[in-house]
Specification:
Layout: H1 2-6, E1 8-15, H2 18-27, E2 32-39, E3 42-48, H3 52-61, E4 64-72, H4 74-82, H5 85-101, E5 107-111, H6 118-127, H7 141-151, E6 155-163, E7 166-173, E8 187-191, E9 195-204, E10 206-207, E11 214-215, E12 220-223, E13 225-227, E14 232-234, E15 238-254, E16 256-274, E17 277-282, E18 291-303, E19 307-327, H8 330-348, E20 352-363, E21 367-379, E22 381-385, E23 393-394, E24 397-398
Parallel strand pairs: 5-7
Antiparallel strand pairs: 1-3, 1-4, 2-3, 6-7, 8-12, 8-22, 9-11, 9-15, 10-12, 13-14, 15-21, 16-17, 16-19, 18-19, 20-21, 23-24
Helix pairs in contact: 2-3
Length: 399
């Protein structure tokens, strides 16, 4: 580093005895290094630029010719820069501008969030006055943290760190509260639908039915009241009861459907978005008096390193169409009704599967109809509160 700051020269010594010159340099305390002998009468080495005059004088006394081959170091750089004032001014201006820009906020990064989107956190930051171009010294991290936590209750911890022109928001989300399973109270398990019991699994309580029994809606399947010889035990009955059930459903589909037919007219609209401001630069954003499909493409301007600017170009394509009636073929109607019927049945099942299906497809003048009966094996057990003391009817009398 010292050699670079003082500047160094690569010199060539030519004469009958270059070593005599080096001896005189040593006596005169002239520093040299990287000595290399090129030929019998020629050698090369490096010296400090400030010692050039003394080195020439001692070389002449030793009857040796000194020739400068190259120079390097900070003084050489300064001398070259004096001949290029525009470069020097541009460099100084760039350094000053870089230091000045560090005092403003230009980019944002969000870390630690999984379920809360980045856009929600960045929007909350903008609402609190921290946006593109904000003065960094005006950001109070502790106060901003408290305000953001009030705005976003899904976060349990948050920190706002600024490093130059980059603001990093570190977050930690709240874990979803798991409600403890209610174990208190007396519950019975009853049938939600009529059916024939196929499988019975009792976790707690007394089973009141067995596989093969026929039950109606509301029938008691598992009792939460157990009567023993010495006492009566109250509990929360729990278990799963699967039964063979029958479901009936009817679906209807019109004979004519409205289908899109594109007219070939396409409109293109381009909009520049800077933060929350939108400025349309070309095209129309709608087609008056017509129906159209809209396709939107947004291009965010990104700097090297993945830093996104709050500036994007939004392009919209509008395709005009009109609705025309199309006659629906019977085969297509059958396919649609079958898929929709199966979907509706599966939505009604809490748990279980469709075992068999019997359907009837009917074609009428303006519609297609499907009537079906579905035999399912499904979960029919439901837990309901039970009274602690129930009236029992024995021979028509209540006790």
């Amino acid at each position: 580093m010292m050699r670079y700051l003082r500047g160094s020269l690569l010199v060539e010594l030519s004469g009958a005895s270059p070593e005599r010159c080096l001896n005189r340099w040593t006596q005169a305390e002239i520093a040299f290094w990287d000595y290399r002998r090129q030929e019998a009468l020629c050698s090369r080495c490096k010296i400090f630029r400030s010692d050039l005059a003394d080195a020439r004088r001692e070389a002449a006394r030793a009857q040796t010719t000194l020739r400068v081959l190259a120079e390097r170091g900070f003084p050489t750089l300064l001398r070259r820069l004096r001949r290029r004032p525009v470069l020097v001014g541009g460099t100084l201006l760039s350094v000053a501008l870089a230091i000045f820009l560090q005092s403003f906020v230009w980019f944002f990064r969000v870390r630690g969030n999984e379920t809360v989107p980045d856009a929600v956190i960045l929007h909350a930051l903008q609402e609190e006055g921290v946006r593109f171009g904000t003065v960094g010294m005006s950001i109070n991290s502790e106060d901003l943290k408290n305000r953001l936590l009030n705005r976003i209750p899904e976060l349990r911890w948050l920190a706002v760190n600024r490093e130059g022109g980059i603001v990093t928001v570190l977050t930690a989300e709240r874990k979803p509260e798991v409600k403890p399973e209610e174990t208190a109270g007396i519950y019975n398990v009853i049938a939600a639908r009529p059916g024939i019991i196929r499988r019975l699994e009792v976790a707690d309580g007394v089973a009141m039915v067995a596989p093969g029994d026929s039950v109606e809606t509301g029938s008691l399947l598992i009792s939460g009241i157990a009567e023993w010889t010495t006492h009566i035990q109250f509990m929360r009955a729990a278990g799963e009861v699967y039964a063979d059930t029958a479901r009936q459903i009817e679906t209807i589909c019109p004979a004519e459907l409205l289908q899109k037919r594109y007219t070939g007219r396409v409109e293109r609209c381009q909009t520049v978005i800077f933060q929350r401001k939108r400025e349309k630069i070309s095209g129309n954003s709608s087609i008056f008096g017509a129906m159209c499909d809209r396709m939107v493409q947004t291009r965010v301007w990104t700097l090297p390193g993945g830093y996104e600017l709050p500036l994007c170009l939004e392009t919209q394509w509008l395709r005009e169409y009109e609705l025309v009636p199309v006659k629906l073929e019977a085969d297509e109607a059958l396919r649609r009704l079958t898929a929709e019927t199966n979907r509706l049945i599966e939505m009604q099942l809490v748990a279980g599967t469709i075992q068999r299906a019997s359907t009837q497809f009917v074609t009428k003048e303006n519609s297609f109809r499907m009537q079906g009966t579905f035999n399912c094996c499904e979960l029919i057990s439901r837990a309901v509160p039970a009274e602690k003391y129930e009236e029992e009817s024995i021979d028509g009398e209540k006790h």
